[in-house]
TrEMBL record:
The chain crosses the membrane at residues 6-25, 37-59, 65-85, 94-115, 127-146. The keyword Transmembrane helix applies. This is Alpha-ribazole transporter. It comes from Geotoga petraea. Keywords: Membrane, Transmembrane, Transmembrane helix. The keyword Transmembrane helix applies. It comes from the Bacteria.
């Protein structure tokens, strides 16, 4: 139990720090906060989902909760996307990266349509898709390094 809490705590702390590394965009909550969640999802999809959920909460918090209660829905979506990514990564890395990028960059933004409008959602998709891809790519590359040099042992899912 304490090992689980430690995994989630360490990666969530990293997510908090990276939530301050923003991508330039019309909305201030696009950041590197999901990278630790995606990385941990490769190791354990549930832990990664929890980290991605908390990472989104941190980014929305330090960006002023622009989307109000919709951030809870977005955070739940981040949990689901990280979980799906972690499960898919073991089977096909490329499909996992593409699927998670599409879910995060092109599907999830429609949650905030009542605030941004459809035009606003489509306007944020390019930078959000790029940011999603960068977060997921960095997570995948770090995992390759971790696995190659046996920095941490892969946990059973």
């Amino acid at each position: 139990m304490s090992k689980r809490i430690s995994w989630i705590g360490i990666f969530t702390a990293l997510s908090f720090v990276l939530s301050f590394v923003k991508f330039p965009s019309p909305i201030g909550s696009i950041a590197l906060d999901s990278m630790p969640g995606f990385l941990l999802a490769i190791i354990n999809p549930v832990y990664g989902g929890i980290t991605a959920f908390l990472g989104h909460i941190f980014t929305s918090w330090n960006s002023g909760f622009y989307f109000q209660f919709y951030h809870i829905l977005l955070a739940i979506s981040m949990f689901a996307i990280a979980f799906i990514f972690g499960k898919m990564y073991k089977r096909n890395k490329i499909i996992a990266v593409i699927t998670a990028t599409i879910l995060n960059g092109a599907i999830m933004p429609f949650i905030v349509t009542p605030i941004l409008s459809v035009k606003g959602v489509f306007g944020t998709m390019p930078i959000l898709s790029l940011a999603s891809f960068v977060n997921i790519l960095i997570a995948s590359l770090v995992y390759i390094f971790i696995k190659k040099y046996e920095v941490i042992k892969n946990e059973k899912n």
